[in-house]
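Why does this matter for the project? Reviewers at the last site visit asked to see concrete outputs rather than summary tables. In response, this paragraph embeds two records directly. Each consists of the residue sequence and, immediately after it, the corresponding structure tokens. Nothing has been edited or filtered.
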Amino acid sequence: MPHRLFSRLSQLALLGAILAAPLPAAAQTKNLEWASGSPGGAWFTQTTGVSTLVMEAIPDTSIRVVPGGGKDNPTRIQAGLSQIGMGIDFLSAAAFKGEEPYKQKHDKLRTLGSTGVDVYYMVYVPVEEKRSLAEILSDPKLTIGVTAPATSEHLTLQRALEFYGNSFAKIREGGGKVVISSYGELIQGFNDNQFNVLWTAGEIPSGLASQIVDGRRKVKFASFPEELQKNLSEKYGYSRGVIKAGTFPELQSADVSVSSMGNIYLVSSDLPEDFVYGMTKAIMSNRSRLANIYQAIGRYDPALAAKVQPVPLHPGAEKAFREAGFVK
């Protein structure tokens, strides 16, 4: 074999070996994607702000925030599309174990623990509505608005309708209407009387609730029936919550009992330990700035966050919590 050809083949072999070798940690974390929630929603605002804190703390890191949802974010991380994501406790646990609505185990899911936010299902109906939520959800002529299929709201509405023998298909066949859109368009459509029930989830305080209160339509919260809460809790792992009387005076005159869930930070097990360590420290050390990003995440407490593990802690997060004395 001519010397030049041998040399050229050697160079190509070396290049192939370099390309096949694992990327160094710095290269793996230079350009990342963070899956948030629906545009205009709380997760999108939170993710945008917290990702900025992380980029400030870890030089040469670029994080791109993309729309997502509590149902789809675990799968985005498992597939390598996103490396970071906002998560919901019971859905993340189901994804990790490969349980419904997921078809396979999402073994790459790891967490930084709780974001400090509990989320309550907030269902808005006109003030003149006299029916219970059970009667409303059983109605084949129901007109209702909800966010995209990627979200937990969408999935939970499907589960609630199924519990009462209803479905999107039956509503459409019965002359009702299901409007699926972003928060901004849903609020506008609700105010314009395009549908009579708005199915959402939010924190306390809730920016979404404030927007609805400021709207043209007079509305109120609908309580979740006991049998529905029990089904969602026992079958799927939802929590139970109470929106205390006086929390939203314009929307309630008493306690409102609803299903609820906890928010967590999700990361891929493929992310290097040093990066996730730095990310966790960045969030812990900027606790005073979190409320300025979004009021509800101002309640973040690393001592509590470290204990919330519906999926395993990432080793980098565990190291940061252990150094701070929150993990033994």
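We now turn to the second protein, recorded in exactly the same manner.
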Amino acid sequence: MPTAAFFDLDKTIIAKSSTFAFSRPFQAGGLISRGLVLRSAYSHFLYMVGGADHDQMEKMRQFMSQMCAGWDVAVVKEIVADTLHNIVEPLVYAEALNLIVQHKLAGNDVVIVSASGAELVEPIGTMLGADHVIATRMEVSDGKYTGEIEYYAYAEEKARAIEAMAEEFGYDLDRCHAYSDSATDIPMLRAVGHPHAVNPDRELRRVATEEGWPILVFVRPVALGNRFGAAAKPAALALVAGGVVALGVTLWWHTRRRP
């Protein structure tokens, strides 16, 4: 049966909140004020230092949904497309990239599962070579966000989405992997046979220790351009994976040809 590796995004693949990462481009594009950028920076500081429990995540959800009410969807997508590589590439953990490549080589699908908005998560997923994305979707009317959330990919809903995807694509969840930093993702981690805690907050570290889950430490954000060369493109991971496979085939062939 096919298998998959499910990755949380913020503080698991990238070294900060994806939503906060785009706050300054959104300000430059006229979507938010300098005051909101500063408020977002303070919330992000608390998130980076102590993680986010359910109450904090609810406050962040309300703040983000209210903030984006009235935004033009096309403008948001244009800003994300224009700034994606400059904003996100330097934040990607090298350790996460290595895991993504390893799962690709093993024939696993790579799925990003994030409470951030799909307008941010889907382009990041494409850039990283992910096969699928599960993300929050905002309600849209007449091309603008209403401020309401249509689908919230958070906590138990992440686990339900993973189970639904497993049913759709035939994944054997007992053989699947999942990676996250937050205790709010414990249901997602428990949905698979191979959960991993990445830079875990205090509660997730406690649970991971009790359950015997591997605890991984990611510390090296690296620009994709530096890792794959100056001409790195969204298909970089596929090229790297293909190169590793080709190298393995070459070595196998020369071994077979030895007398």
